[in-house]
Amino acid sequence: MSGRTSPTLETQGHSGPVQMGSERSFGLVFAAVFAIIALWPLKSGGDPRLWAVGVASAFLVVAVVAPKALKPLNLVWFKFGLLLHKVMTPLIMGLLFFVTVTPIGLLMRATGKDPMRLKRDPAATSYWITRDPPGPAPASMKNQF
Between the CA atoms of 71, 77, 80 and 84, what dihedral angle is there, to the nearest 10 degrees? Predict the structure, then answer.
């Protein structure tokens, strides 16, 4: 390789502060969201929501004609996203751990499973596991990439 790292999971972290999206894309996204809100009642035979049509139209016009006017709203939305990130990520990761990993670990411990062979064996002279059949020759591992 030429000094650059490959895009693996370890190297994909952002290398600087998070950047806010453009005002035009913010306006277009919100125009689409309010258009969906406006047209959703049509799915069940109802009338469209006129207030949402108006909001969608306003966002669309401002996004196309004067996107700089959306900067304050875009900034508030961006800061709200950062706040959600700081609050929700630890909560979701903790919930995921305690709902999945912890019960599996407790179940494995209760059934006596030890997949990593961590139990101490005072009679063992070594914990080395011999491979049968043996793996590739060590010389073949010199130029892996």
Answer: -140
Only one residue has tokens 């499973």, namely: 113
Give the predicted TM-score (pTM) of the model.
0.61
Is residue 117 helix, strand or coil?
coil
pLDDT score of 52: 96
Among 5-14, 96-105, 108-117, name the most confident range.
96-105
Phi, psi of 66 (to 5 degrees): -140, 75
DSSP 93-115: HHHHIIIIIHHHHHHHHHHT--T
* pLDDT for res 116: 86
Q: Which residues contact 26 (CB under 8 A, 6 or more apart)?
A: 63, 70, 73, 74, 77
Instruction: Check: CB of residue 71 under 8 Å from CB of residue 23.
Output: yes
Q: How far is CA 28 from CA 47, 62, 121, in A?
A: 23, 9, 65
Long-range contact pairs involving 29-33 (C-beta distance under 8 Å, separation at least 24)? 30/56, 30/59, 31/56, 31/57, 31/59, 31/60, 31/63, 32/56
